[in-house]
Structure formats: C-alpha cells, structure tokens
C-alpha cells in the first residue's frame, strides 16, 4: 500500500486518479475505478444538462460506496454551458471532491469551498499551479506536454514540469500526462508528486464506455500516434493521429483559421468515434502513453497491477541497488 498526502486528502487507497474525460467519464467507469481503490471522476459536461449530471451521480452511487468526484472543465466557448447550474448540481448531490480545469476557476473554487468540497485543479504550468494554490484549491494536478487533450503552450514535458512544480507548490500535487504503469507511478513519486492521474490508460479498460475497436486502436498505436492540432491558434490539443487530425494539421500549415476546420473538429463527430468504433470519423483525445498500453484489463486488474509493480520497483530494484552500493563500500 502506497500512502501519500493525496490519498489522505481524498480518502482513497491508492494514489491513482482517473481523469475527467469528455464522453468517457461516465458512471460505469468511475465506479469501477472507485471500487478498485483509486479516485474516479465523472465528467460533468459529458452530461447534456445539470439534471442529467444529478442522475449520473446517483447512478454512480448505485454502483459504488467508495469516494468519487466530478470534473468541471471551464473552457472558452461560443455558447458557454451553464457552469453555475452544473456547479449547483454537484453541490446538491453531496459530492466532496471536484477536479477543476481550464480558465480562472475562482468563482467555482469559492463556492465549492463553502460546502467543504476538496478541489484538485489541473494545470499545465508552474505559474498557473501557484495561482490556483493562492485561490485556495486543495491539490494540483500538473499536466505535462505528453498528455492527451490540452497540454498548454509551454511544451514542458513531465520530467521537468513535475519537479519544477514540486519545488514551489506546497499543497499535495499529482502528476498527469504520460502515465500508464507502475514505473510511471514510482517516477512521479520520485519527482515530487503524491500520485498520478491517467486518462488514456483508463480509456483502454474493460469498463470504459467506448467502442471496443477504439480500445484496440489504442493498444495497436505506438507513442508516435498523436497529432497536435490548434497549434497556430494557441489552443493546442493532443489527439489520436487519424485521417482528420492529419488534415487539420496540414490546413493549419496553409493558414487555416478555426472557422475553416470547425466542421472537421466538431465534438459531435468525436463522440461518434467512441460510439461506432470508426477511429477516423472525428477528432478524439489520446496521449503519447499509447506506446505503453498493451492490453485491455478491468480497472481492478489495472490498479492492482500498477501498485504491485510500483511496490516491487521500490522494494526490490531500488533497495537492491542501495544494498549493492553498501556492499561495495564495505569491501
């Protein structure tokens, strides 16, 4: 059992979080993660209305009696969703852990804190982590360049970003982007984090509510099978490489604006990928960690394997190296 400040903060057994993922963070996956002793997060905006979110939280409670949370991502939109109403649904449902991500969450942080909710804020730079800490969040999820979704515009990989943040952030911090096994968990702990957040790896589990063919595509893909779209618009997104992402990257090189690619990147098309299994139907998120994903386990198998691997590395490999060095010194 690996205990950290983060496991103590949110009341879970293992320092592993299933990140909020659009169209993927649904009750069946979240409950399976919670039952495995890790922290699962329902994605609020996957639910079409705040009322649907209330129902999804209730559905998750029917499937687990362990702690789980909700992700609320605040992104610029032509027609913003009713964030305050989603926030109210989360509060009224008695949720005690929320992951926020995106722009300036201060009003949400203030309101959640009034109700004793623990807030994990996900960000892609040290300066944003420090700003969130000042806002009063309880933990940081620091997201390196390897991640799926929005890696920010600084292009700082986890190997640098995690210790750089650990040097300055005082509250518990988990590491996001590029994590999928026990080696990653040990590395994150060594770099100063208190746990890991995984998105793509949890997409590729038995309970993940996406098409089997997409899971098989993730297993088949290696670490090079992602594209960075919206680079020219300074709103970079790392997605699985497919016919559409390749076309969008090419169009951007030729000077395309968002209006020119809007139809190609529409969320509804991305949602269809997960429903139909046609990986070329739309844009869908996946990280470079695809190169480390070789199977489709249950969440229970995945979490216990990661913890087992991590404990073996710490106990056998590291202690063996130390005792070897001590032996040599004695000689």
Automatic annotation (TrEMBL):
Protein name: Nitronate monooxygenase
PANTHER family per UniProt: 2-NITROPROPANE DIOXYGENASE, 2-NITROPROPANE DIOXYGENASE-LIKE PROTEIN
GO molecular function, one term: nitronate monooxygenase activity
One family name in Pfam for this protein: NMO
Species in which this protein is naturally found: Bradyrhizobium archetypum
Stored Gene3D superfamilies: Aldolase class I
Keywords recorded for this protein, A-Z: Flavoprotein, FMN, Monooxygenase, Oxidoreductase
């Amino acid at each position: 059992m690996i205990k950290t400040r983060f496991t103590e903060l949110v009341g879970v057994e293992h320092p592993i979080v299933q990140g909020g993922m659009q169209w993927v963070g649904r009750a069946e996956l979240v409950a399976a993660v919670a039952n495995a002793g890790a922290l699962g997060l329902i994605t609020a905006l996957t639910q079409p209305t705040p009322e649907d979110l209330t129902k999804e939280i209730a559905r998750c409670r029917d499937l687990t009696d362990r702690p789980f949370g909700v992700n609320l991502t605040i992104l610029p939109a032509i027609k913003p969703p009713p964030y305050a109403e989603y926030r109210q649904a989360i509060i009224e449902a008695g949720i005690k852990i929320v992951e926020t991500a995106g722009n300036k969450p201060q009003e949400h942080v203030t309101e959640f804190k009034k109700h004793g909710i623990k807030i994990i804020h996900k960000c892609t730079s040290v300066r944003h982590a420090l700003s969130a800490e000042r806002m009063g969040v309880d933990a940081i999820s620091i997201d390196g360049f390897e991640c799926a979704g929005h890696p920010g515009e600084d292009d700082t990989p986890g190997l640098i970003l995690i210790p750089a943040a650990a040097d300055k952030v005082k509250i518990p911090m988990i590491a996001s982007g590029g994590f999928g096994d026990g080696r990653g968990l040990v590395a994150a702990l060594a770099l100063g984090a208190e746990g890991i957040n995984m998105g793509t790896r949890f997409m590729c589990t038995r309970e993940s509510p996406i098409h089997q063919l997409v899971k098989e595509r993730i297993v088949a893909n290696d670490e090079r099978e992602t594209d960075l779209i919206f680079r020219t618009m300074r709103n970079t997104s790392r997605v699985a490489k497919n016919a559409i992402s390749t076309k969008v990257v090419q169009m951007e090189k030729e000077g395309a604006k968002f209006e020119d690619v809007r139809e190609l990147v529409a969320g509804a098309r991305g949602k269809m990928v997960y429903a139909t299994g046609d990986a070329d139907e739309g844009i869908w998120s996946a990280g470079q960690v695809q190169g480390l994903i070789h199977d489709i386990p249950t969440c229970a198998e995945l979490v216990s394997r990661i913890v087992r691997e991590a404990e073996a590395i710490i106990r056998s490999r590291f202690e063996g190296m130390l005792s070897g060095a001590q032996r040599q010194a004695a000689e």
